[in-house]
Amino acid sequence: MAVTESAPETAPAVPEAAGARATPENGGARAAHEGILRRQAARESAARTYARALPIVPVRARGLTIEGADGNRYLDCLSGAGTLALGHNHPVVLEAIRKVLDSGAPLQVLDLATPVKDAFTTELFRTLPPGLADHARVQFCGPAGTDAVEAALKLVRAATGRSGILAFAGAYHGMTAGALAASGGASDVRVARLPYPQGYRCPFGVGGEPGAELAARWTESILDDTKSGVPSPAGMILEPVQGEGGVIPARDDWMRRMREITSARSIPLIADEIQTGVGRTGAFWAVEHSGITPDVMVLSKAIGGSLPLAVVVYREGLDTWEPGAHAGTFRGNQLAMAAGAATLAYVRENGLADRAAALGTRMITQLQSLADDFGCVGDVRGRGLMIGVELVDPEKPPSSPSGPPPAAPELAAAVQRECLRRGLIVELGGRNSSVVRLLPPLTISDEQASVVLNRLADAVAEVAKAHAGTEAESPRRTATGRTQTVGHAQGAEHTQRGERSG
Q1: Which end of the chain has the least Cβ crowding within 10 Å, N or C?
Q2: What per-residue confidence (pLDDT) applies to 411?
């Protein structure tokens, strides 16, 4: 995950966040909070990530809201890196978990058939793109998305008899060997890296449809040129929206070109829907925006309803594995399957994908005003409730005459810290950790969305003023174009603390 290495190793006491219940009596709670953070820094590995930038100790959570051990409350727009489609502790998820616990059913069954597993698989297949659902197989993997990616890479290599993989610059597919290779890391898996089209930092300098067309032609050239050094690959893996890569949505026409290119050359197309799936982008699965049907889908995060679960869904013609060709001890998590089935059904029955599309469009439109007001905001982009704000340094020259200003990871980290001070949890991503990312639950209300936008706007304004060395303005202009006091923003959060039904 993208983090700033300059984040403090042992975090000082966090300034009281918006909505904190500060009282003379909570000194003990704050001391306990700080003690837990000190022990974590002393005991846990240097590889930890989120804890460095987010020095909080969650003890209670509901919907969008997290309460820390020190009594501070936060609006969580990280959502477990997109895992919590329904937010924290949604009633339908808790009910599904309790039902399994109260039934006396086994909690771990390897790959044996159970009623809970059957219900999950039935609901999953009900949501799949029609072209895949009618002729699909599912492989339950280990508990993490990277396990599903590893299984998918193994699957297409076994089915095609080929070894190489096509992947894209800026991709993130996990932390195991094959997944790291597809993400740009070192591995013995041979990966050919292709350009991923984007508007703001187009690798060809043109953006839009021309940039996507050039990226597609590059891919065709690599595959058809016998001297390219890239033999016919076992598969192509892509993200419909690059999440960790900086919230970069693929153009629908480019997605269709990738499907045409791979189909014409009998190359299985793997769609990584680990973060984009289950309504996140405004369609149940992000590939549905372009109307394509991949050969393989790797799924995790939200499909477990907040618990660890990962699967590979693929067309039956690829199912050439021998028994035991791929296994894993923790692939029979009954609680995760129950929570996942409940989440899939709730998103489907309540039209939360459509809700994400509409609300996400409004939020992105409102956030784009930040780019007009502050030179350090280079780009606002996203799809559905998967939103990114890229921070740049307008005082430094661009790398090319017509290109954007250079990325400013230090400003993005400062915005993240200012957000936390105001009671808002956001993530960083992008090639240079310069993109502030929002992944709110699909159940976020309009009022909560306004509070999120206003707190983010406040944080950006504070950082921009500090960067420029100017005085703070009063009253402030919000992302929604209104003037508003901090007290009003806090009040809106208080009215939503019950979170309705999640």
Answers
A1: N
A2: 97
- Contact assessment for residue 333 and residue 307, using Cβ atoms and an 8 Å cutoff: yes
CA 183 – CA 187 distance, rounded (Å): 10
Question: At 262, which helix (H) or strand (E)?
Answer: helix 252-264
DSSP codes joined into one string, 99-126: HHHHHT--SB-TT---HHHHHHHHHHHH
| Alpha-carbon distances of 285 from 232, 272, 292, 383, rounded to whole Å | 28, 10, 11, 12
Amino acid 176: pLDDT: 72
What pLDDT was estimated at residue 232? 92
Centre a 10 Å sphere on the Cβ of residue 446 and count the other Cβ atoms it contains: 9
Domains and CATH numbers, the chain: 24-89+352-495 (3.90.1150.10), 92-349 (3.40.640.10)
Q: d(Cα 380, Cα 374) in Å, to the nearest integer?
A: 12
Q: Prior bond to 210 cis, omega within 30? A: no
> Dihedral of CA 31/32/37/43: which sign?
positive
Strand 386-391, strand 248-249: pairing: unpaired
Give the separation between CA 498 and CA 352, rounded to whole angstroms: 19
Which among 334, 296, 279 is positioned nearest to 121, based on CA atoms? 334
Cα–Cα distance measured from residue 216 to residue 196, given in angstroms and rounded to the nearest whole number:
9
Report, as ranges of residue numbers, the positions in the chain whose pLDDT lies below 50: 1-16, 20, 22, 470-478, 480, 482-502
What DSSP line would sit under 309-367, residue for residue?
--EEEEEGGG--PPTTSS--TT--BHHHHHHHHHHHHHHHHTTHHHHHHHHHHHHHHHH
pLDDT at 484: 42
Length of the chain: 502
- Enter the tokens of residue 78: 């990280």
Rounded Cα distance between 374 and 94, Å, is 43
pLDDT attached to residue 325 = 85
Residue 242 — φ and ψ, nearest 5°? Answer: -75, 115
Round to whole Å and give the CA distance between 305 and 98: 13
Q: What are the φ and ψ backbone dihedral angles of 138, each rounded to 5 degrees?
A: -130, 135
